[in-house]
């Protein structure tokens, strides 16, 4: 009964009892029982955590409501109306920002850069690896939602079993915006666009210098790269895909393997696109993207707890805002340089004319 309850808790399908003596009627091993018990415990923990988060959200909402009411108490009528007017404007601005975000995500499906995550290895992952990979996918999705230039993310070659496993961690997977779930393999999906596919691999000879909007960029969807060294390059070579590596070496000195997690690669591509979108030149955009996406622990000379180094944290609202600010500062500096050059040219012209006049 405990095993049946564990299966029900994990959402696994149950079948009618089989006749005694059949292979599937054999008693569960200790390892199988332990895995079922762990799955049931995770399901219960997740349920309790969701309930706690919901209650915390309710309390925070009530506290904010009370704070807003307290702010109005004791104000004169004119001041009170001004506060109410400001709040309405802020609310409208949030609504407009949300609508703009939804518009960008809708357009990304047809007009955004295609970013495919090759999920062919998902069925070979352990339960723990699959949960970690699912978490990385959710982080990549969160970064894409906030991007000023989002991609269309394609989960390619996702089996039904892996689809269900990811959905256990990310319940809203099937409703993710600008995300396409494809059970067909990569070779089948892009059979007629082979020349447009670029498989990203740390072992590639070619370096990626720019992101072209008509290309499909593929990221290997695996967790433990160390046990599958060269797997993405081998698969790409076997299927005839063009490969390229990210320009890490030109902008950061790594302390070990150049292999990054799925969400770190996605973040880097999104940040580079955001930089170009904001007006940064390609190489400058790559530099900012790599600085923000590559964690400190991957860098040469990193010692845990020593030194802060440049801030990293992937592609989030703060990172996109920093890129926009850098692009604006760069544009201002470019304008100033242009004004200085024009002034110097004007001064040089006046001096030249003065010299011509004196010679005459």
Automatic annotation (TrEMBL):
UniProt entry keywords in alphabetical sequence: Methyltransferase, S-adenosyl-L-methionine, Transferase
PROSITE patterns, A to Z: SAM_MT_TRM10
Superkingdom in the source lineage: Eukaryota
Residue ranges, compositional bias (Basic and acidic residues): 41-80, 333-343
Domain SAM-dependent MTase TRM10-type intervals: 101-301
E.C. no: 2.1.1.221
Iron recorded as keyword: no
GO cellular component: nucleus
InterPro entries: MT_TRM10-typ, MT_TRM10-typ_sf, tRNA_m1G_MeTrfase_euk
Biased composition (Low complexity): 1-16
UniProt signal peptide: none
Recorded catalytic activity of this chain's protein: guanosine(9) in tRNA + S-adenosyl-L-methionine = N(1)-methylguanosine(9) in tRNA + S-adenosyl-L-homocysteine + H(+)
UniProt KW Methyltransferase keyword: yes
Region (Disordered): 1-80, 332-360
One Gene Ontology MF term: tRNA (guanosine(9)-N1)-methyltransferase activity
GO BP, one annotated term: tRNA N1-guanine methylation
Gene3D superfamilies xref list: 3.40.1280.30
PANTHER family: TRNA (GUANINE-9-) METHYLTRANSFERASE (PTHR13563), TRNA METHYLTRANSFERASE 10 HOMOLOG A (PTHR13563:SF13)
Protein name as it appears in the record: tRNA (guanine(9)-N(1))-methyltransferase
Originating species: Prasinoderma coloniale
